[in-house]
Amino acid sequence: MTAPPPPPPLAMPDDDDDVPGLADSQAPIKKTPRTDPGSTDGLFPKRPSSSQSGSGTGGFDTVLGKRIVASGLVTEDELEQCRAELDGDSDDCDRTLSDLLIEHEFLTDRQLQRLRKEFDASKLSQKIPGYRIIKKLGSGAMATVMLAEQTSLRRMVAIKVLPRKFSEDHNFIERFHKEGHAAAKLNHPNIVQAYDVGQAGDHHFFIMEYVEGQTVYERIQRAKRIPEDEAINILIQSAKALQHAHMKGFVHRDIKPKNLMLTKSGQIKVADLGLARNLEDAKAAEEEKGRAYGTPFYISPEQIRGELTIGPPADIYGLGATAYHMVTGHVPFSGKNPSDVMRQHLKTDLRPPDQLNPALSSSFCQVIEMMLAKDRSDRYHTAADLLEDLECLRRGEELIFAKPKVDLGNLVVQVTPPQEQLEIRSKPKAAQGNTSPTMIASIILNVLLLILLVVVALG
Length: 459
Ligand SMILES: Nc1ncnc2c1ncn2[C@@H]1O[C@H](COP(=O)(O)OP(=O)(O)OP(=O)(O)O)[C@@H](O)[C@H]1O
Ligand SMILES: [Mg+2]
Known about the structure:
Elements: H1 15-18, H2 60-70, H3 76-88, H4 97-103, H5 109-125, E1 131-139, E2 144-150, E3 155-161, H6 170-183, E4 194-200, E5 203-209, E6 213-215, H7 216-223, H8 228-247, E7 260-263, E8 268-270, H9 280-287, H10 301-304, H11 312-328, H12 338-347, H13 353-356, H14 362-371, H15 383-395, H16 408-415, H17 419-426, H18 437-458
Antiparallel strand pairs: 1-2, 2-3, 3-5, 4-5, 6-7, 7-8
Helix pairs in contact: 8-11, 8-15, 11-14, 14-15
């Protein structure tokens, strides 16, 4: 199956939290009466009166109050101040505790969105038949991931719950189900196994293999820089996964450290393969322009240009950017907003990885640079080619595809003899000093041999 044309995966709000070089605009937003397109408003009817606060918002305000105080985001006094205002404000029945917390800048819009998403996912997931929800595993730009037990098989699974806004886009939902079912047919030890896609109410979810461990992103955060050997091992496993997926007609389009899971035994599992991505993400990033809301650190130039045919080289670029991040501790290009980062993917020369980490071998740098070539025809064409070079790297052998960059400036210096040598060569032989001792010894030896031969011949 060939996946449909690529929507550039742009909105990645979690990414800019901790990636070096990016300022996160967490500043509270003043008076933001906004309707979050990703929110779960259907599940949270507006509060009819403050005395019902909590019940009128589907329980969100009650949970919200408890959560924000317990996590230290808001003090008891601040919460009380908002509640009191809510009680006194009988004119505006539409105002919620959330609105007031934002207005007073006690919470940022983004913090609120995350809390809503978590609340929604946990509430909804209690309703997925056949599964017992255990806990939240994490959340990204698109969704929240929960750990659950599939009761019939008594196995642990991870369930990715999409927000309600996705159900409004029929094309996306159709693709989500189609690709989800197709992905379930992919089977490889380095790919998170997709099990099924489903729907509960307005929400759609994706059920997959549960991977116990950490993401490569978390590994980078802990280690700052991943040692070369370990990085090569991660890349080999990821390239094997890509090779399998590409052969089956899948292109991931969102390879990044957060989508590479690392088990406790060091096995790599590529996540979200075959999971449809939404065009809305691009729109959302545009709308949030200037806020560094989502930043595409790992996106290929052809995806940025919105080209129609996105093939395996796009995943190789994403894996190259991941490799760069792993071994240097920095993403290849960072900037103040998504457009800035994307512009650099298109135009700015890559800073060689060994400039940031001089301990890296030159061969490994050549491989990373080839993976990150801006023009896809200069990149590894297939994951199989990449794999060959990675295996050479591991064995310490000469690379097959990546070659050292030819620096013309250096070449000129090499073919031009240094001044000193020029002077010596231009000196007349006599002026170059006496004949060397080796030469004298060789002449004496030859004469002695000649005498010996004559004596033997005469005798
Ligand atoms: N199969 C899984 N097993 C265990 N944990 C998982 C699994 N899939 C995802 N997670 C956890 O859930 C988190 C959120 O995953 P999700 O795919 O929603 O977002 P992301 O990949 O971090 O970012 P984005 O939304 O930008 O793709 C991951 O970072 C990971 O910690
Ligand atoms: Mg993911």
